[in-house]
Write a structure and sequence with these properties.
Number of strands: 0
Structural class: mainly alpha
Radius of gyration: 27 Å
Number of domains: 2
Strand content: under 5%
Largest sheet: none
Distance between the termini: 48 Å
Length: about 350
């Protein structure tokens, strides 16, 4: 029929389209993480954003509400980071003073080392030989290569600059996603329907539910763990309890990550000869992590996506290993879509429940 593309033309269009997509991905690959982060944030805050649109309908469709929302997101990230940097700078000054005293006087054996149940003599002897005298302390500190330290400092500085640029681009992308949300959602639904049929919209819904469930199960539960541990740190006399509680909340977003932080808190207590308090930090910490990781998170994430918690855990850990922090959200969402497609595939030809197949 005249006007209908020939099979050869269809193949040529497909090859050209795939080539252009590959070229486009290669061109913007450094900013893909920013775009995904912006999409994750937009999905996470969409219920609140929609409520704000209903509350102030005259702002719908303009740039004011997206700009305000983007600014709030920026402040929620920048304010805690700035406070952490200020505290870290103060701690760095204390560390410099401590190193100066250590070089001049050595580091005496802490009292708690004499009370450990096993390996006490070996540990005390090692400390006396390597840290107890000024000469031994200076020899140990000399092991740090200044040139290597400078090199790693430069790498950290370049990494911070790169991440700052990515963060700014994420905010820019978030603004446009919020401003054009209705148009983008409509286009994605249309494209998903053309490519995948009825499964397209279900896949999109599964991704949205997975991201929201992951945020509830990781971010909110992590904040809860950090708040509980901050109270415990404060009650047990851990140095800088609020700062360490905030660090615990961030680490708790990764399964089993909070354990690293409350072990640091326990060690800080041991250096103050507070053995009982250190034990209590461990007991409280493992109890909080046990409840959160074995009961609360599976209910929040698995309940939102109908995803077994084993696959949630695999998606989270595999995502973090592959994509870093972004993998916390991309991993479970990917697993949720794959499990949904698998269920649709295996259930497609099954007879309805109660049907006699004999």
């Amino acid at each position: 029929m005249v006007g209908q593309p020939l099979p050869r033309q269809k193949r040529a269009r497909l090859i050209l389209a795939l080539g252009l997509v590959a070229l486009g991905v290669w061109i913007i690959h450094d900013f893909l993480a920013s775009l995904v982060w912006a999409a994750v944030i937009a999905i996470a805050i969409s219920p609140l954003y929609e409520r704000a649109e209903r509350r102030w309908p005259h702002l719908r469709g303009g740039v004011t509400l997206p700009a305000i929302t983007t600014l709030v997101v920026a402040l929620l990230v920048l304010v805690p980071v700035s406070l952490g940097i200020i505290r870290a700078a103060s701690e760095a000054q204390d560390l410099v003073r401590w190193l100066t005293v250590a070089r001049e006087s050595g580091i005496p054996v802490p009292h708690w080392l004499y009370s450990i149940p096993f390996g006490r003599d070996a540990a005390v002897n090692w400390w006396q030989q390597h840290l107890a005298t000024p000469e031994a302390t200076q020899a140990e500190l000399a092991r740090f290569n200044n040139r290597a330290l400078l090199y790693h400092t430069q790498i950290v500085g370049k990494g911070l600059i790169h991440r700052s640029i990515i963060f700014l681009f994420t905010l820019l992308a978030l603004f446009f996603l919020l401003r054009d949300a209705d148009m983008l959602v409509g286009q994605l639904k249309s494209a998903g329907s053309r490519l995948f049929g009825p499964s397209g919209e279900r896949m999109g819904q599964q991704v949205v539910q997975s991201v929201r469930g992951t945020i509830d199960g990781l971010v909110l539960v992590g904040i809860g763990e950090g708040a509980v541990m901050a109270v415990a740190y404060l009650a047990l006399g851990v140095p800088h309890p609020l700062l360490l509680g905030a660090a615990t909340a961030i680490a708790a977003m990764i399964p089993f990550g909070a354990a690293v932080m409350f072990e640091i808190a326990a060690f800080a207590l041991l250096t103050q000869d507070a053995v009982t308090a250190a034990i209590l930090v461990n007991v409280i910490g493992f109890a909080v992590v046990g409840v959160a990781d074995h009961f609360v998170r599976p209910a929040l994430i698995g309940g939102a996506t109908r995803l077994p918690f084993l696959w949630v855990l695999v998606g989270i850990l595999g995502g973090v290993e592959t994509l870093g922090l972004l993998g916390l959200f991309v991993g479970p969402a990917t697993m949720a879509v794959l499990v949904m497609l698998w269920r649709e595939y295996v259930e497609r030809d099954l007879p309805p429940a109660g049907t006699d197949v004999g």
